[in-house]
Design brief:
The complex is a heterodimer of chains A (about 400) and B (about 260). Chain A has about 400 residues and is an alpha+beta fold. Chain A folds into three domains: about 15-130, Orthogonal Bundle (Butyryl-Coa Dehydrogenase, subunit A, domain 1); about 140-235, Beta Barrel (Butyryl-CoA Dehydrogenase, subunit A, domain 2); about 245-390, Up-down Bundle (Butyryl-CoA Dehydrogenase, subunit A, domain 3). Helices cover about 50% and strands about 15% of the residues of chain A. In chain A, strand 4 and strand 5 form a beta hairpin. In chain A, helix 8 packs antiparallel against helix 9 (about 325-350). In chain A, about 50% of the residues are buried. Chain B has about 260 residues and is α/β, with parallel strands linked by helices. Chain B has a single domain, classed as 3-Layer(aba) Sandwich (Rossmann fold). Chain B has helices at about 35-50, 65-75, 95-110, 125-135, 190-195, 215-220, 245-255; strands at about 1-5, 10, 20, 25, 30-35, 55-60, 80-85, 110-115, 140-150, 150-160, 160-170, 170-175, 200. In chain B, helix 2 (about 65-75) packs across helix 5 (about 190-195) and helix 3 crosses helix 4. The longest helix of chain B is centred in the first third of the chain and has 17 residues, at about 35-50. Classes of the chains: A alpha+beta (about 400), B alpha/beta (about 260). The interface of A and B includes residues 26, 29, 37, 65 and 85 of A.
Amino acid sequence: MATTTQAPTALDPLDFLALDVLLSDEERAIRDTVRQFIRERVLPDIGDWFEQGILPREVIQELAGLGLFGMHLDGYGLPGASAVAYGLTCLELEAGDAGIRSTVSVQGSLAMFAIWKWGSDEQKERWLPAMHRGEAIGCFGLTEPDAGSDPGTMRTHARRDGSDWVLNGAKMWITNGTISDVAVVWARTDAGEIRGFLVEKGTPGFSAPEIHKKISLRASVTSELVLQDVRIPADAMLPGASTLRGPLSCLNEARYGIVWGAVGAARACFDEALSYARERIVFGKPISAYQLTQQKLAEMALEISRGSLVALHLGRMKDQGTLRPEQVSLGKMGNVRGAMEVCRSARTILGANGVTLEYPVIRHVNNLESVLTYEGTHEVHTLVVGQALTGENAFGRA
Amino acid sequence: MKIAVCVKQVPDATVHKRLDPSTHRLDRSGEGALNPTDLNAVEEALRLRDAHGGEVAILSLGPERAMDSLRKALAMGADRAVLVSDAAAAGSDLVATSHALATALGREEPDLVLFGQQSSDADGAVLWAAVADRLRRPMVSQVAELTIEGGTLTGKRQTEFGYDVISAPLPAVVAVSDAINEPRYPSLKGIMGAKSKPQETVSLADAGIEADRVGEAGSKTTVRAVAPPPAKSDQVKLEDDGSAAEKIVEYLAEKRLI
């Protein structure tokens, strides 16, 4: 019988289960590059950006320079990276800030994916290379002021007028809206179909005012989309999608990234809490020496390890083409909830420092409040899993 | 123009560095990374190639796993990598390492050889001089600006008192400082494309290097003892009575830190 003589490797608190060995060299290289970028270009200033409510345009351009926009899509000059590589990227971006991860998610998984999946060849040729290079920014308009979890009740309407379409309505909570060159707007047609339309910046009747006074995802642009008799040509409609399946397929892409991203936020807070606990002296010894703190830290390591494994497993399944949307729902539910627990617990370890922007913790805590309900609320994902388990639809309407 | 960049895999900045008391060598078992100023050398080589055409070859002497770090240079845009790796080369000192690199470079016949100013582990900052001497080529170090025109390079050399501007005919050897440029991040496509670029790991024999001139056999120096740095004891605690800033400046000046 074979015996192993290899000694256990040293414990890495940030990768307690040594999951690093499950990644390929290329996956590690991609992760390390994004991590280095975040460390050098984002972490020194992110507290200020969050406070000021901005994400500098040059940072968006640098993200494009790294090739991250639409990285997991292929053809049209796109990199065609694996789902795992994309997930690792989301994790590292969100370890910086969920606002930055959201910017990349919306550009790649919502706006670009919608065009990549449902667009015509002409639409793809025109937009995908430019969006990959960051020369064009995109957004995705599905949610409305009165239609969130039930997008089927959307009021935004597309009327045929000759060969043109005329759009009317409003979209809400649209990441990247104000800075977008092209908006993917979902609307109901006279024929009762749900169709996606590419609405370009500057089209008469179309505006995208920024939403202010938010206390979460502040280093990310959130907007309304206002459409008043917006006339667009026939070839601005995405030909491939005619039902809600169109936009929902895009959301499934984006929430896959969240499964990973949430782990990044948790890791960042855990990292901070662990070093703080070792240095903060209370009653003559570091708080890391107290049982209550150790319990918190151990629970954090557990949540991060578990969340990482879930994300990686879902990623491998996605790469094999076997991943189901219900499994992504389970991952999003568990990992976001776990991340919120980790970050709030880190907050208590940092005491008052935990609520200042000098430390990353309260920023992640606040960001996760958005992550909890966007791309499908925790409740909706719970019911998706519930329906998958029981065969019963508990969404209210049969 | 053919440019060769000599690089070294060093322990990653996040790894706690440890000298192995039994071998008297640095423990290299942890995560490795490309030496920081080598990234400046790679970046400069890529800029020169993009301006003048040609190719950038990466050359290193090290353990087999050093190829992981060389791949980063390929991901940044270098064209190919050659790693001389051989158990007999372990423990090479400056003299032995310079022999190995000079021999390998002799086969490559580059127009320009670039080095980073110094490695972050051994901190020798002389290897480029030894290699240039063996190749009998002109050498400029501490270069913060580099231009090539015709067959001549011009380097702005940083010194303690200002700059020297030095010209030399190609082929030549240049060591760059970290002030010369800001190394690019490898792009996603660069990383994904790196694995299909030529990567050769060659033995001493393959590279035409005599085994008795490298490794411990070919080294002229012997490390007799190693010891960790003494624990920090030189700490001063200041109570701020309004003059703390002055006292800190005085302290730093006394330590020649400013």
